[in-house]
Structure formats: C-alpha cells, structure tokens
Specification:
Blueprint lengths: L5 E6 L2 H12 L2 E2 L8 E5 L7 E6 L12 E3 L9 H15 L5 E10 L2 E10 L5 E4 L1
Parallel strand pairs: 1-4, 5-8
Antiparallel strand pairs: 2-3, 3-4, 6-7, 7-8
Length: about 130
C-alpha cells in the first residue's frame, strides 16, 4: 500500500498562495486546518496529495529543481491543436490570479512546431508548467 503524502511549500503569505493553488488545481482548504502561519489544501476527491504552505521570512531566491506541472490535456494520445487550446485557456485563467508567463516551449514534429508547455511563475515566484 502506498503512503499518503503531502507536498510542502515555503511561502511569504501561505493563505494567499494556498488560495492561488486551490484555484489552479481545483483543490479546497483542508477542513479543520487553522494556522495563521500555515495553510493546507486538499483534493476534494481525495485522489491527489495534500499541499501544505508554511510561512518563512525569506523570499524565493532562485529556480527550484522541483516544481508542479499542470497536465490540463490529460494523457496521450492528444489532438495537438485541442491540447494547445486547453493549455492557453488555463494560462489565461491563471494570469489574473497572479501567475506570470515566463515562456512557451515548442516541440517539433513532422507537422512543424507545436505548443509543448508554458512555463509560469506563481504569485510568489515559484516555477510551474502548464502542459
């Protein structure tokens, strides 16, 4: 049996960052978790891991080697133009919530260049990708 696990994240404002990730992932605040210096969010269907946010005094100082990829197009095989529309729609929905686009990554195949993923920053500067 696999263990239950939580992704932990440092934050300057744990509740604001938890609100962003609730919107990005479709998560909800963890029932009964009440801490002014921390926040926890959970998958309402109980499938994905919990994510905990802990207040720390220092800001994000560089690129993390561990980040989240939002897989909005599901599993392959994909209809590549439809997949690109899903990616761009998610990026457009996250930008007004405080996310920033860093760059689009293109993949090359026999049809030419296609959208692979979009690299973004969350409101506190943490890297994530929309794919």
């Amino acid at each position: 049996m696999a263990l239950h696990w939580t992704v932990g994240a440092d934050a300057n404002d744990p509740h604001a960052l938890a609100d962003f990730w609730c919107a990005a992932l479709g998560y909800v605040p963890e029932p009964g978790y009440d801490d002014p210096d921390g926040a926890s969010i959970v998958d309402p269907d109980g499938v994905g891991p919990a994510i905990g946010f802990l207040r720390v005094p220092e800001p994000t100082t560089g690129k993390s080697r561990f980040h989240v990829d939002l897989r909005v197009a599901g599993e392959p095989p994909w209809d590549w133009p439809a997949r690109a529309e899903l990616i761009r729609a998610k990026v457009a929905a996250l930008t007004p919530l405080g996310a920033t686009v860093v760059r689009e990554e293109q993949y090359a195949d026999e049809r030419g260049s296609i959208l692979g993923h979009v690299v973004m920053l969350d409101p506190e500067g943490n890297v994530f990708c929309v794919a």
